[in-house]
Amino acid sequence: MILNKSYVLEKITRLTPLVTSFVFRAKDGTSVDFVPGMFAMLQYKDEKESIARAFSMANSPPADRFEFLIALIHGRLTSKLEAAKLGDVYLLSAPYGQFKFEINSGTKFLFLAGGTGIAPFLSMLRYAKSVGKKLDCSLMYSVKYSDEIIYADELKGMELEDGLRTTVTVTRPRENDIWKGETGHVNADMIKRDVPDFKERISYICGPPAFVRALKDALISLGVEEKSIKAEMWGE
Ligand SMILES: Cc1cc2nc3c(=O)[nH]c(=O)nc-3n(C[C@H](O)[C@H](O)[C@H](O)COP(=O)(O)OP(=O)(O)OC[C@H]3O[C@@H](n4cnc5c(N)ncnc54)[C@H](O)[C@@H]3O)c2cc1C
Questions:
Q1: pLDDT per residue over 155-183, tens digit each?
Q2: Ligand 1, atom 6, residue with closest C-alpha
Q3: Residue 48 lies in a domain
Q4: Dist. CA 200 → ligand 1 center (Å)
């Protein structure tokens, strides 16, 4: 566990119009262990203000760096990050949370991600890859716009190399969109169609509150027991 440790902003990568990846490196090189799915508190501090917000780790543990996938929504902390420069120092406390990946539970997984809710799943999938664990995992990933799909190439690579099954769906396709894939919200019918053995899986849901509630209800209406569902929500 680390508390208010100094981290240097090492890398900024704009991934989509809304989402940017921020990588912070421990100033003193400390490596932090965590369970994929957990989050950190990132704190901006100057002489006038102090703002702390939660962000899920997107990288694999253990690490002396944290990667966060952050929707830049012009809020208090995200405005600071929009103006951030390499070398800036933030304070970090981690790890926190109960949304933990039970990689050794000997079961199959269903991951349901909405928007930046893909971050903890990337941590889980990257971790499984780093320890050479083959997962039986289906990912259903919903974004508003086709240009908001985060790390599409990496996910494609996991499909080809690691047997990950994915359904990516765009809920607000634009006119003349180049996207020719699935459209519409993830729902009970889509789950039944693409993941017919969903009842044999542990389901993890992460995304905005409306997404998480709708999918938890959908799974329960399909007969999934509440104890097989883990959920984390944030955003609008
Ligand atoms: C456990 C946990 C993990 C989280 N992980 C991530 C993560 O990996 N990536 C990430 O981007 N965020 C994540 N968040 C959300 C994050 O903590 C902040 O709430 C978010 O970045 C906004 O902070 P802010 O200070 O910029 O906005 P604030 O000044 O606090 O204002 C936020 C306002 O914007 C609204 N809002 C929040 N999200 C959105 C959105 N996406 N679009 C439009 N309006 C919005 C809120 O309802 C609120 O009114 C996580 C939250 C929790 C609790």
A1: 999 999 999 999 999 999 999 999 999 99
A2: 55
A3: yes
A4: 32
- Residues 64 and 140 occupy one common structural domain: no
Copy the structure tokens of residue 197. Answer: 């053995």
* Last-in-domain residue among 74, 96, 118: 96
C-alpha 218 – ligand 1 centre gap (Å): 25
Q: What is the CATH number of the domain that holds 78?
A: 2.40.30.10
Which helix or strand (DSSP H or E) is residue 120 part of?
helix 118-130
Residues 12 and 124 reside in one and the same domain: no
- Cα of 116 to ligand 1 centre, how many Å? 10
Q: What is the pLDDT of residues 127-156, one digit of tens each?
A: 999 999 999 999 999 999 999 999 999 999
Atom of ligand 1 nearest to the CA of 97: 1
Tens digit of pLDDT for each residue in 87-114? 999 999 999 999 999 999 888 999 999 9
In contact, 128 and 103? CB cutoff 8 Å: yes
125 within a domain of the structure (yes/no)? yes
Q: How far is the CA of 80 from the centre of ligand 1 (A)?
A: 13
Give the SS3 label for residue 176: coil
